[in-house]
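Quick note —
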Amino acid sequence: MAAPAVSKGRSTETFVDNKRKDDIRMANIAAAQSVADAVRTSLGPKGMDKMISTASGEVIITNDGATILNKMEARQPAAKFLVELSKSQDVVAGDGTTTVVVIAGALLKASFGLLTSGIHPTIVSDSLHKVSIKAVEILSAMAIPVELSDRDSLVKSASTSLNSKVVSQYSTLLAPLAVDAVLSVVDPDKPDLVDLRDIKVVKKLGGTIDDTEMVKGLVFDKKVSHAAGGPTRMENAVIGVIQFQISPPKTDIEQSIVVSDYLQMDRILKEERNYILSMIKKIKSAGCNVLLIQKSILRDAVTDLSLHYLAKAKILVIKDVERDEIEFITKTLNCLPISNIEHFRAEKLGKADTVEEIALGDGGKIVKITGIKDMGRTASFLVRGSNQLVLDEAERSLHDALCVVRCLVSKKFLIAGGGAPEIELSRQLGAWAKVLHGMEGYCVKSFAEALEVIPYTLAENAGLNPISIVTELRNRHAQGEINAGINVRKGQITNILEENVVQPLLVSTSAISLATECVRMILKIDDIVTVR
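Predicted structure written out below.
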């Protein structure tokens, strides 16, 4: 019996194993979600704080999403995305760093459900892109324009940002300070650009946060040099910022000078004295009576001898000024840094009404320079606090409040807080999903529901019943109350705008755009290749 003929044309069906690709995707989503869940509890005014203990034994207490994630050591590559995500939100808007991670986590959870239903990742990713564009449109339509002259609105949005921080009870003090600081550094020629490096925060241990103040001028966390009984207060100050040393020169290379008799020794000391005296005479003849001396690495910036002569010449000395502060100081004083004694001229000096050393109640001392003539567009804060943890957290909170005001300067729109914009987005996107056809509509509906995570979490963290609160909130929005949100203090739903809970539009729009971008990137990855 003949064997059956084997057909020459092989069947083109081949088996492709997609299991591994799905596993990688699921592992990435799970890792990123666990990062999002870690910061979820610190969302909102009633959110919990995290205590971070570093390897070096340093302890940080904060509920700023960017700080928490920054200190976390994420090993899994996809989890690192979320850390980068909160960093980029911190750069763009400065606030909403926890929100953006929580939204990303919720969108990933929704994507997970869609992928398990068998929808292709590319379709999910494209739908997400459309959702992002539509969401920004919806938010922009909800926004309320604001003028920079309307100081109250700016203060309201800054205090909303501060309300979720450890220092929330001081928001009435810190919010106006933040607004005044940003408005004082805004350049009328370039109103959209605010450089927060023009606002310096000096932290001083002792007192409470109530003692925090904004100084029109400069503050140094240093003492005036008292070595030879020099002055500690100077009226009508003429200030020189110098980058050279008032001390005898050293040889350029490692050399030793051998002195064989006393005459030579006397001559060396005499030359040293004359050298220092001639420098101080030049400084005095330019009319300078306050010296800020940059820290020197190579040799002592000042010696006991030079301090003695400076004190005799009635020149107030502040030494050890850090190199990176020089730019800020010269901008504030409207003077030029002087790098050589030969260039010490009157036109390079700054002028101020008073320079004085102020003793704080707890033994610490600071130096204040006030009444600066032609002061540059800068501002200084003196932040006080009972311990280092509170001080650091106050500085981070102030930074967030400053960023919020900066957002409003660059994009002059406000939007309600308290979960109102997210529920409104969810409602409008859900309605839009019904118009779309095929898989897209299904995906958009799923993402619309995912956005409810923000109000849900807000209610959960405040100890309310999240399901009944979110259902009631959805109901109020369906009746057309677009500014209804969760009032965590009263534990009910009210018009959030009337409660003064507002945030800049930029915070919400960048949170949505950045979160969707990050989720799309995670969805597109189907394999992890490790390279040795």
